[in-house]
Design brief:
Blueprint lengths: L4 E3 L1 H7 L3 E5 L3 H5 L7 E2 L9 H10 L1 E5 L4 H12 L5 E3 L2 H7 L17 H22 L5 H17 L3 H6 L9 H13 L7
Parallel strand pairs: 1-5, 2-3, 2-4, 4-5
Length: about 200
Protein backbone atom coordinates (compact mmCIF):
# COMPACT_ATOMS: atom_id res chain seq x y z
CA UNK A 1 0.00 0.00 0.00
CA UNK A 2 1.26 3.50 -0.83
CA UNK A 3 2.55 5.89 1.79
CA UNK A 4 -0.17 8.37 2.82
CA UNK A 5 0.00 11.92 1.49
CA UNK A 6 1.89 14.16 3.87
CA UNK A 7 1.60 17.93 4.12
CA UNK A 8 4.00 20.34 5.79
CA UNK A 9 3.19 22.36 8.88
CA UNK A 10 3.29 25.52 6.75
CA UNK A 11 0.73 24.19 4.28
CA UNK A 12 -1.42 22.88 7.14
CA UNK A 13 -1.28 26.28 8.84
CA UNK A 14 -2.36 28.02 5.63
CA UNK A 15 -5.21 25.58 5.01
CA UNK A 16 -6.26 24.95 8.63
CA UNK A 17 -9.61 26.75 8.24
CA UNK A 18 -10.50 24.48 5.28
CA UNK A 19 -9.49 21.18 6.87
CA UNK A 20 -11.16 18.78 9.26
CA UNK A 21 -8.31 17.96 11.63
CA UNK A 22 -8.47 14.60 13.41
CA UNK A 23 -5.98 13.94 16.21
CA UNK A 24 -5.42 10.20 16.71
CA UNK A 25 -3.37 10.41 19.92
CA UNK A 26 -4.77 9.29 23.26
CA UNK A 27 -7.21 11.66 25.03
CA UNK A 28 -4.53 12.55 27.59
CA UNK A 29 -2.06 13.50 24.87
CA UNK A 30 -4.78 15.47 23.06
CA UNK A 31 -5.58 17.45 26.21
CA UNK A 32 -1.92 18.33 26.70
CA UNK A 33 -2.00 20.33 23.44
CA UNK A 34 -3.42 19.92 19.95
CA UNK A 35 -3.84 21.83 16.70
CA UNK A 36 -6.56 24.49 16.89
CA UNK A 37 -9.93 23.03 15.91
CA UNK A 38 -8.71 19.41 16.02
CA UNK A 39 -11.09 16.64 17.00
CA UNK A 40 -9.94 13.77 19.21
CA UNK A 41 -10.52 10.33 17.70
CA UNK A 42 -7.90 7.91 19.08
CA UNK A 43 -6.30 5.57 16.55
CA UNK A 44 -8.06 2.52 17.97
CA UNK A 45 -11.44 4.24 17.40
CA UNK A 46 -10.87 5.23 13.74
CA UNK A 47 -12.91 2.33 12.38
CA UNK A 48 -15.83 3.25 14.64
CA UNK A 49 -15.72 6.81 13.27
CA UNK A 50 -15.39 5.80 9.59
CA UNK A 51 -18.88 6.92 8.46
CA UNK A 52 -18.44 10.36 10.01
CA UNK A 53 -14.87 10.78 8.72
CA UNK A 54 -16.04 9.71 5.24
CA UNK A 55 -18.79 12.34 5.43
CA UNK A 56 -16.22 14.99 6.44
CA UNK A 57 -13.90 13.94 3.58
CA UNK A 58 -16.76 14.39 1.10
CA UNK A 59 -17.17 18.00 2.30
CA UNK A 60 -13.48 18.96 2.32
CA UNK A 61 -9.95 17.92 3.19
CA UNK A 62 -9.16 15.70 6.18
CA UNK A 63 -5.85 16.08 8.00
CA UNK A 64 -4.86 13.37 10.48
CA UNK A 65 -2.30 14.26 13.16
CA UNK A 66 -0.47 12.58 16.02
CA UNK A 67 2.70 13.32 17.99
CA UNK A 68 5.28 12.54 15.28
CA UNK A 69 3.42 11.24 12.24
CA UNK A 70 3.61 7.45 12.73
CA UNK A 71 0.13 6.91 14.19
CA UNK A 72 -1.43 9.36 11.74
CA UNK A 73 0.14 7.44 8.83
CA UNK A 74 -1.41 4.24 10.21
CA UNK A 75 -4.77 6.00 10.51
CA UNK A 76 -4.51 7.27 6.92
CA UNK A 77 -3.80 3.72 5.73
CA UNK A 78 -6.91 2.47 7.54
CA UNK A 79 -8.95 5.27 5.99
CA UNK A 80 -7.52 4.54 2.52
CA UNK A 81 -8.53 0.87 2.88
CA UNK A 82 -12.08 2.17 3.29
CA UNK A 83 -11.77 4.60 0.34
CA UNK A 84 -11.47 7.73 2.50
CA UNK A 85 -8.84 10.22 1.39
CA UNK A 86 -6.84 11.92 4.15
CA UNK A 87 -3.41 13.47 4.58
CA UNK A 88 -1.04 13.31 7.52
CA UNK A 89 0.85 16.22 9.09
CA UNK A 90 4.57 15.81 8.44
CA UNK A 91 6.30 15.58 11.83
CA UNK A 92 3.02 15.72 13.76
CA UNK A 93 2.24 18.10 16.60
CA UNK A 94 5.91 18.01 17.61
CA UNK A 95 6.90 19.67 14.32
CA UNK A 96 3.94 22.08 14.58
CA UNK A 97 5.05 23.23 18.04
CA UNK A 98 8.76 23.27 17.08
CA UNK A 99 7.96 25.86 14.40
CA UNK A 100 6.40 28.08 17.06
CA UNK A 101 2.80 27.42 16.06
CA UNK A 102 0.37 27.42 18.94
CA UNK A 103 -1.26 24.35 20.39
CA UNK A 104 -4.70 24.56 21.94
CA UNK A 105 -5.06 23.37 25.53
CA UNK A 106 -8.60 23.03 26.84
CA UNK A 107 -9.57 25.17 29.81
CA UNK A 108 -9.41 23.15 33.00
CA UNK A 109 -6.73 20.75 31.77
CA UNK A 110 -4.75 20.36 34.97
CA UNK A 111 -1.97 17.98 34.07
CA UNK A 112 0.15 17.31 31.07
CA UNK A 113 -0.09 13.71 29.91
CA UNK A 114 2.90 11.73 28.83
CA UNK A 115 3.06 11.01 25.13
CA UNK A 116 2.69 7.39 24.04
CA UNK A 117 6.36 7.12 23.05
CA UNK A 118 7.39 8.18 26.55
CA UNK A 119 4.96 5.71 28.12
CA UNK A 120 6.40 2.91 25.95
CA UNK A 121 10.00 3.83 26.83
CA UNK A 122 9.18 3.84 30.56
CA UNK A 123 7.36 0.51 30.41
CA UNK A 124 9.98 -1.22 28.24
CA UNK A 125 12.84 0.09 30.36
CA UNK A 126 11.14 -0.98 33.58
CA UNK A 127 10.47 -4.51 32.31
CA UNK A 128 14.07 -4.86 31.09
CA UNK A 129 15.47 -3.72 34.45
CA UNK A 130 13.12 -5.98 36.41
CA UNK A 131 14.06 -8.94 34.20
CA UNK A 132 17.77 -8.29 34.68
CA UNK A 133 17.45 -7.80 38.47
CA UNK A 134 15.31 -10.90 38.91
CA UNK A 135 17.77 -12.80 36.71
CA UNK A 136 20.65 -11.84 38.99
CA UNK A 137 18.86 -12.04 42.35
CA UNK A 138 16.37 -14.88 41.88
CA UNK A 139 16.98 -17.08 38.84
CA UNK A 140 18.65 -16.55 35.43
CA UNK A 141 15.45 -17.59 33.64
CA UNK A 142 13.92 -14.19 34.50
CA UNK A 143 16.26 -12.63 31.92
CA UNK A 144 13.80 -13.96 29.35
CA UNK A 145 11.66 -10.89 30.22
CA UNK A 146 14.45 -8.60 29.04
CA UNK A 147 15.05 -10.69 25.93
CA UNK A 148 11.32 -10.61 25.15
CA UNK A 149 11.25 -6.81 25.31
CA UNK A 150 14.36 -6.60 23.11
CA UNK A 151 12.74 -8.89 20.54
CA UNK A 152 9.55 -6.82 20.71
CA UNK A 153 11.49 -3.61 20.05
CA UNK A 154 13.22 -5.15 17.03
CA UNK A 155 9.87 -6.40 15.69
CA UNK A 156 8.34 -2.97 16.34
CA UNK A 157 11.08 -1.25 14.34
CA UNK A 158 10.88 -3.70 11.44
CA UNK A 159 7.08 -3.56 11.14
CA UNK A 160 6.57 0.08 12.21
CA UNK A 161 3.99 -1.12 14.73
CA UNK A 162 4.03 -1.16 18.49
CA UNK A 163 2.16 -3.81 20.42
CA UNK A 164 3.14 -2.25 23.73
CA UNK A 165 1.62 1.09 22.66
CA UNK A 166 -1.58 -0.74 21.68
CA UNK A 167 -1.74 -2.30 25.16
CA UNK A 168 -0.90 0.97 26.94
CA UNK A 169 -3.56 2.81 24.91
CA UNK A 170 -6.15 0.62 26.65
CA UNK A 171 -5.24 1.91 30.13
CA UNK A 172 -7.95 4.12 31.69
CA UNK A 173 -5.94 7.36 31.52
CA UNK A 174 -5.45 6.84 27.77
CA UNK A 175 -9.08 5.98 26.96
CA UNK A 176 -11.73 8.42 25.79
CA UNK A 177 -14.92 8.55 27.77
CA UNK A 178 -17.84 7.35 25.66
CA UNK A 179 -19.59 10.72 26.05
CA UNK A 180 -16.48 12.55 24.77
CA UNK A 181 -16.21 10.34 21.69
CA UNK A 182 -19.96 10.65 21.01
CA UNK A 183 -19.70 14.46 21.24
CA UNK A 184 -16.70 14.45 18.89
CA UNK A 185 -18.52 12.31 16.32
CA UNK A 186 -21.59 14.55 16.56
CA UNK A 187 -19.41 17.61 15.98
CA UNK A 188 -17.78 15.90 13.01
CA UNK A 189 -21.22 15.12 11.52
CA UNK A 190 -22.40 18.70 11.99
CA UNK A 191 -19.38 20.50 10.54
CA UNK A 192 -20.20 22.72 7.62
CA UNK A 193 -18.39 22.33 4.31
CA UNK A 194 -15.31 24.51 3.88
CA UNK A 195 -15.75 27.69 1.81
CA UNK A 196 -15.05 26.64 -1.74
CA UNK A 197 -15.49 22.91 -1.04
Amino acid sequence: MATPTSISTGEAHTRLHDLTVIDVRTPGEFTSGHLPGALSIPLDRIRLALPDIRHAAERGGVLVVCASGARSENACRILAEHHVTAATLSGGTAAWAAEGRGLHRPAGAVRAAWGMERQVRLTAGTVVLVGLLLGVLVHPAFQILSAGIAAGLVFSALTDTCGMAAVLARLPHNRPRAADLDATLAELRNRRPAKGA
